[in-house]
Amino acid sequence: MTTLTKTEDSPAPTGPDSFLSVRDLKVRFSTEDGIVKAVDGLSFDVERGKTLGIVGESGSGKSVTNLTILGLHNPRTSTVEGEIVLDGKELVTATERELERLRGNKMAMIFQDPLTALSPFYTVGRQLSEPYMKHKGASKKEAKDRAIEMLTKVGIPQPKMRFDDYPHQFSGGMRQRAMIAMALMCDPDLLIADEPTTALDVTVQAQILDLLKDLQQEFGSAIIFITHDLGVISHVADDLLVMYAGRAVERGSVREVMREPKHPYTWGLLSSMPRLDSSVDEALEPIPGSPPSLLNPPSGCPFHPRCAFRDQVPGTLCSDTRPPLGEGRAAACHLTAEQKQTIFIDKIQPRLR
């Protein structure tokens, strides 16, 4: 069942520049063990021509959020509440036929593993051409010409010859490039990239990231870039949303969040990253504990069972009360602004230098 609700706590839209607006999104799955709160009250905006990075550990709700935007959740086993507005079109209440017209045409996704996303039974050229013929009403020749053009743009060598190859004949980097070409075939206004460089070596990874930035400048697409790697996101995104246990815990520009993070979870993510100038014997500082079960998430702040600074908050505020995430540059944490500044300067900043 899919329902549409609004709450008084949902932030107001940020303005006319918001191309995609998500408000108080909640996605829940019915399982034999109970209800999984995969996304629990998420709000954000993406502007045209900008890239929003979404980071968090596995199970934080990143991929579920973006599959829901595309309408790829199973309505028989999931419940969706809230608002998803793409260029003025409400998606939560849209019919499957309306979503089919939008998918691949106005919005598209680059999946994490192209080997499983691409069908092994059809040539790469056919898989690129068919959506273009469906959405644009193009002839077979027009679709083939467009596919070869896009394979050229993403750097596939000898695109006319590779058009008739099958996915297993492409290398990992070439399959990822083909996935990008497929996503961009119909010039979508919104491109969702779900950890598109995870399985690639660092050289190919850098090439793919540069390619996405170049194509965004050419096509003017809004991009949502999902990853668990803050090092990657710092090079591709304009704004950053940090997710934990289905919620947004910190938001701001990439520069603001990377230079002066304000949430203990973000501190943990940054502190656990290796540095080029660190000694090979220097131990990383992992975040203690494990991500919570979304079947029975913690009360109050979802991060409080793993937070090293919860004893600086008086009483049981962290365990009893959910901290709000305000508008603009914000972090959902009960620590005062003065406490955050002191902790960051004394304990976090020295690890990041």
From TrEMBL:
The similarity annotation says:
Belongs to the ABC transporter superfamily.
Q: Residue limits of the ABC transporter domain?
A: 22-270
Which PROSITE patterns does the entry link to?
Answer: ABC_TRANSPORTER_1 (PS00211), ABC_TRANSPORTER_2 (PS50893)
- Subcellular locations according to the entry: Cell membrane
Identify the InterPro entries for this entry: AAA+_ATPase, ABC_Ni/Peptide_Import, ABC_transporter-like_ATP-bd, ABC_transporter-like_CS, Oligopep_ABC_C, P-loop_NTPase
Which GO biological process entries does UniProt record here?
peptide transport
Report how it sits in the membrane.
Peripheral membrane protein
Keywords annotated in UniProt: ATP-binding, Cell membrane, Membrane, Nucleotide-binding, Transport
GO MF terms held by the record: ATP binding; ATP hydrolysis activity
Q: Give any Gene Ontology cellular component.
A: plasma membrane
List, alphabetically, the Pfam families matched: ABC_tran, oligo_HPY
| Listed PANTHER family | DIPEPTIDE TRANSPORT ATP-BINDING PROTEIN DPPD, OLIGOPEPTIDE TRANSPORT ATP-BINDING PROTEIN APPD
Q: Which domain of life is it from?
A: Bacteria
Q: What is this protein called?
A: Peptide ABC transporter ATP-binding protein
